């Protein structure tokens, strides 16, 4: 069955620390990959997406992610976090080439940045 | 920036009652979705809707659930006889094409509490 794993459920960092959140998926075919962020009390917002081309994608707010096909991974990174990055981060996968329009979400990583 | 609007933001209902959750997708989008997030758990796909019919649904989306696009702007999710385990945040989303495109735009959610 298709699944998405986010290894870190809770991460606490100090401001200016570097961030890397892991995401692995299980699906043998071609996928589109997304990271969404959910700030407290708000809706899911798209941070960045990958569907082809350069495996290193840049998103909003200084975030980037790298698709490593051989590892089925799409890890999210930010060189220097800010207090305002405190939020929950979700990795999502959309299998391509089928009638499947749905996203499969990971369980989320709750990030807390200490000022 | 265009938004997906959901109403109400919070609904409390008694077990066994019917609820209708409402969504206004972005006007030129063609694909509509409902997801839910039980507190502390991952975001789960419920149903996708295109061209006035369901294109895919999950195992969660049983006979108690239905969706409708009653006019050109609204997209509703009805739960016929609510159960305690239906308590969750329900997110509506829309996209101009399939999930393989630019990603969804999510609404801010309706928190459903079944008592």
Determine the CATH superfamily of chain B.
Answer: Immunoglobulins
CATH class of chain A: Mainly Beta
Radius of gyration of chain B: 13 Å
**Average pLDDT metric of chain B:** 91
Q: What count of helical segments of chain A does DSSP give?
A: 0
Of all protein chain pairs, which has the greatest interface, and how many residues does each chain bring to it? A-B, 24 and 26 residues
Largest sheet of chain A: 6 strands, mixed
CATH architecture of chain A: Sandwich
Overall structural domain count of chain B: 1
In CATH, the homologous superfamily of chain A goes by the name Immunoglobulins
Gyration radius of chain A, to the nearest Å? 14 Å
At the first level of CATH, the class of chain B is Mainly Beta
* Total number of strands of chain A: 12
Reading the helices and strands of chain B in chain order gives: EEEEEEEEEEE
Number of domains of chain A: 1
Q: What overall form of chain A do the CA principal axes indicate?
A: globular
**Helical segment count of chain B:** 0
Can you characterise this structure?
The complex is a heterodimer of chains A (115) and B (115). Chain A is an all-beta fold and 115 residues long. Chain A has no helices and 12 strands. Chain A has one domain: Immunoglobulin-like (Sandwich). In chain A, strand 8 (64-68) and strand 9 (73-78) form a beta hairpin. Chain A starts with a strand and ends with a strand. The model of chain A has no long low-confidence stretch (mean pLDDT 91). Chain B has strands spanning 5-7, 10-13, 19-24, 31-37, 43-50, 53-57, 65-68, 75-79, 88-95, 105-106, 110-114. Chain B is 0% helix and 50% strand. Chain B is mainly beta. In chain B, a hairpin with a 5-residue loop joins strand 4 and strand 5.
In short:
The complex is a heterodimer of chains A (115) and B (115). Chain A is an all-beta fold and 115 residues long.
């Amino acid at each position: 069955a298709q699944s998405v794993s986010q290894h870190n459920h809770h991460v606490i960092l100090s401001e200016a620390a570097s961030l890397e959140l892991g995401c692995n998926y299980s699906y043998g075919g071609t996928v589109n990959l997304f990271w969404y962020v959910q700030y407290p009390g708000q809706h899911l917002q798209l941070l960045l997406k990958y569907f082809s081309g350069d495996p290193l994608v840049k998103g909003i707010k200084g975030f980037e992610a790298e698709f490593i096909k051989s590892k089925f991974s799409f890890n999210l990174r930010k060189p220097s976090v800010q207090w305002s990055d405190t939020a929950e981060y979700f990795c999502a996968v959309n299998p391509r080439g089928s009638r499947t329009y749905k996203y499969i979400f990971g369980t989320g990583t709750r990030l807390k940045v200490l000022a | 920036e265009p938004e997906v609007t959901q109403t109400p933001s919070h609904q409390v209902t008694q077990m066994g009652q019917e609820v209708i959750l409402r969504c206004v997708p972005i006007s030129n989008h063609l694909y509509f979705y409902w997801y839910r997030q039980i507190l502390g758990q991952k975001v789960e796909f419920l149903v996708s809707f295109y061209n006035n019919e369901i294109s895919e649904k999950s195992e969660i989306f049983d006979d108690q659930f239905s969706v409708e696009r009653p006019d050109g702007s609204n997209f509703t999710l009805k739960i016929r006889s609510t159960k305690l385990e239906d308590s969750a945040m329900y997110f509506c989303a829309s996209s101009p094409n399939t999930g393989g495109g630019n990603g969804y735009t999510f609404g801010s959610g309706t928190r459903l509490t079944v008592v």
